[in-house]
Amino acid sequence: MNQSVKSDKNKPRLTLVPRQIIYAIAVIREYGTSKYGDSENWRTVEPSRYKDAAFRHFLAYLDEPEGIDKESGLPHLWHLACNIAFLCEMEKRGVKNESI
User: Fold this and answer.
1) What distance lies between CA 70 and its chain's CA centroid?
2) In whole angstroms, what is the distance from residue 29 CA to residue 42 CA?
3) Residues 49-85 pLDDT 10s
4) How far apart are CA 54 and CA 76, in angstroms?
5) How many CB atoms lie within 10 A of CB 96?
6) What is the pTM of this model?
7) How far is Cα 84 from Cα 86, in angstroms, rounded to an integer?
8) Alpha-carbon distances of 7 from 3, 4, 13, 95, 100, rounded to whole Å
9) Which helix (H) or strand (E) segment is 24 a member of?
10) Measured between alpha carbons, how far is 20 from 92 in angstroms, rounded to an integer?
11) Which helix or strand (DSSP H or E) is residue 25 part of?
12) Rounded distance, CA 34 to CA 37, Å?
């Protein structure tokens, strides 16, 4: 195989994703895994609960952009990002790229 030529057509450029959101979601996932004891239990929760949680954290963020969740001690914005990530994973609709 010729390693000097690489076909990346139709592959997402993951390096375009801001690294901070990856870090933020990872920190929230660490917190959740510690709290619930199972890193995959989020998959068994109905999406409506993540929508409600995302909305609560979004409203809290709008009220106070630097706000911290009282229970976790972590930013509301990070919780919002994690809830949205869960919903994106659970509701993979309209994805045109087969590699995702």
Assistant:
1) 20
2) 10
3) 999 999 999 999 999 999 999 999 999 999 999 999 9
4) 9
5) 6
6) 0.83
7) 5
8) 10, 10, 12, 20, 16
9) helix 19-36
10) 23
11) helix 19-36
12) 5
